[in-house]
Each structure stands twice: as structure tokens, then as C-alpha cells.
Amino acid sequence: MDKFNFTIIGAGVIGLSIAFDLSKTFNHIVLVEKNESFGQEISSRNSEVIHAGLYYQKNSLKSRLCQEGKVFLYEYCEKNKIPFRKCGKILVAKHEQENELMNLFMKAIDNGVSDCYLLNKENITNLEPLAFPGKAIFSPSTGIIDTHAFMKSLKQKFEDNNGIISFASKVVGIQYINRMYKIRLSNNFEFISEVVINCAGLGSTEISNLLDIRKEVFLCKGDYFRISPVPKINHLLYPLPLKENTGLGVHVTIDLGGGVKLGPDASYVNQIDYKINERKASDFLMEGRKLIPSLTIDCIYPDMSGIRPKLQKYGETEQDFYITEETANGYKGFINLLGIESPGLTASLAIAKYVTNLL
Ligand SMILES: Cc1cc2nc3c(=O)[nH]c(=O)nc-3n(C[C@H](O)[C@H](O)[C@H](O)COP(=O)(O)OP(=O)(O)OC[C@H]3O[C@@H](n4cnc5c(N)ncnc54)[C@H](O)[C@@H]3O)c2cc1C
Fold first, then answer.
1. Which of 41, 145, 236 has the most ligand 1 atoms within 8 A of CB, as the residue to mutate?
2. 24-40 per-position pLDDT tens digit
3. Helix axes 344-358, 13-23, angle to 10 degrees
4. Which of 104, 140, 252, 347 has CB atoms 3.0–4.6 Å from 69's, for a disulfide?
């Protein structure tokens, strides 16, 4: 039977980042992915924003790994010619939300995000004439990235370091025998691994449950609508985050292809289904007009959707990323990553370093 030192489950941005990081030092690493290619799930269905870390609980993994990951990601993009733009973000509040805006600003400063500052009406109009002229926070180091190019580059580097990727390989069984993991794939192929790293995104609880480590992840869907004709904006425009800990609020994102999108909204769902409800157009218009008041219904079209793996139910306190070696549950060498929602893309390289250090 084949034996590997490390098995990574899931070739999304997290699995690829970990695979690349480990392959710098170790060998005999296999990355198994159930789809025919990499990054077909959460990692290709998001806003592609490099976050600055304004929102998260102080000292949480989300906060620390987002800020560290942002620095790593910009460095990686520059070094490896991955398309990105540090376009900056304007987080706009209405008059009655000014206290909330100030609280968020103080939280960001307290979290160590030292480069953001406040804008008044005139500043906003000068920077972004189409934006709602309220009070705002400006985050100059927020940006956008070509996620596909980033993942492709990680995959290439992993393979250059002799890492093996097995596509169309769904993990359906894991047994812990004599301090080793026996892994079974859907095609009945079996192999042994010393370490297993679960970064299966929306499938991560299924993997965790194979070892009877019972964890629940809740699915929270976000739809996007495209704006066409494209409004002339140069910055990302965000509202204040949602109070129910479901998301950052419908925002206006620009992408590197020159498109502009509204989204994502947030609704808890029971199953994975990426269809978009076209009747939501008027809700998106209402949210969009809080950021660009001149938007009209005839310029909003359904675009795509993504699904967040959340550790909390609707309305519950926001949970941190769960990244743990499951020794306490009796599984030494099994690293479990659950609830890797936003800012997972931003944090990906820092998460990889964190996991390598756990080992
Ligand atoms: C709507 C939305 C917007 C977001 N916006 C941003 C943003 O702007 N900035 C940001 O930083 N983050 C953002 N995020 C978060 C970010 O996209 C995720 O944190 C990140 O992509 C998660 O990557 P992943 O590798 O964990 O998951 P995935 O990309 O889903 O990868 C997991 C992989 O595991 C595979 N898999 C599952 N089960 C098995 C199995 N049994 N066997 C083998 N393989 C399996 C899947 O096929 C998949 O390829 C957003 C997320 C969403 C949903």
C-alpha cells in the first residue's frame, strides 16, 4: 500500500496554500480533490477582496491571520506576477449610523489596522463622485486579486516541489490504525498517511465526521448581481457589516476584468444550490442605492453565488476559524480546518504558515 507523510484533503485556496508551504520543507505529500480540477467551490465563488482586517475580534485567528495574510498575499502577487490592485475601500455610513461607524473605526485601530482613516462628505465626493456622501472609513490597503491565477501558481509551485495532486478523488473513509491514517477514496483506492489535513471547505464536517469528531457547519449563501452599464468607480464600496454576523453587507466590488458587482447577500440554506433568485433584484437595488444612489433597476442582472461554511447559526455570536490538531480527541496528526469563511482567501498564506507551525 502507498504511504505518504502528508495528505491534504481539498484543493481550494487553503489546501493549495498549505500544500505549497509544506512542500518547501517536506516531501511525500499528496493533495486529494474530489473535483476534476482545483478551486471549483468556495474559492471561485467569492468577492476576491484582499481584506485589511477591520472587523474581527481582537486577537482572534480571523484578525491575526487576515492582517498577516494580507502582507504575505501582496508580497506573493508582486513576486509571482499575480494580477492584483490595491484599490482601497470606502466603508460608508448613513447619518444615523455615525456612532456605529466610529465604533468600527476604533475597533480597527485597536486591532492594529493602523492605515485606515475617516472621510467626510467632501472627501468622498472627491474620491468617488458616484458614492453616497456620508461619513466613511477609508482603507487604503484593501485590494482585489485574480484568485484563479493565485491558485494556479500555488499548484504549479507545489508540483515543482514534487508534490502530487490527485483529482477526481473523493475521500470517503479514514481509519486511525497504529498511529497512521488509512484513507479510502471513492474509486476504492487506499493509502496510508502519517498526517492528514482536512481543508475540504463545505465538505469539511463530512471528513471530520469520518473520524467521529462531530462538528457542525451551517451553509450561508450569498448571491451577486452584476451592474451594467458599468458605473465609473475606482474603489470598493462597503456598508456597515450586518448585525446578525451573517456577512459584511451587500457591497460594490470591482474586479480586475473591469466588471462591477453588487453582493453578496446572506441567507442560511439547507443544501448547496448556486441558483440565483432573480426576484431579489429589487432588494439588491435597495442595498446598492445606499452606496451608489443613482443606480436603477434596469442596470442590475443576476450574476453568481457562493456559500459560506459558518460555525454559528443565524443570529449567534460570530465564531473564529477552527484550526486544530485533534490530539485531544485522540487523533494526533489530524489537522482539522472548519468554518474557513471570509477572510479565508486573504488569510490563506498565513493559515498555511500557522498549520505548518502546528506540525
Ligand atoms: C460569498 C463569499 C464571498 C467571500 N469573499 C471573500 C473575500 O472577498 N475575501 C476573502 O478573503 N475571503 C472571502 N471569502 C472566503 C473565501 O472564499 C474562503 O475562505 C476560501 O475560498 C475557502 O477556501 P477553502 O479551500 O477552504 O474551500 P474550497 O475552495 O471550497 O476548497 C475545498 C475543496 O475541498 C474539496 N472537497 C470537499 N470534500 C472533499 C472530499 N470528501 N474529498 C476530496 N475533496 C473534497 C472541494 O471539492 C473543494 O475543492 C468569501 C466566501 C464566500 C462564500
1. 41
2. 999 999 999 999 999 99
3. 40
4. 347
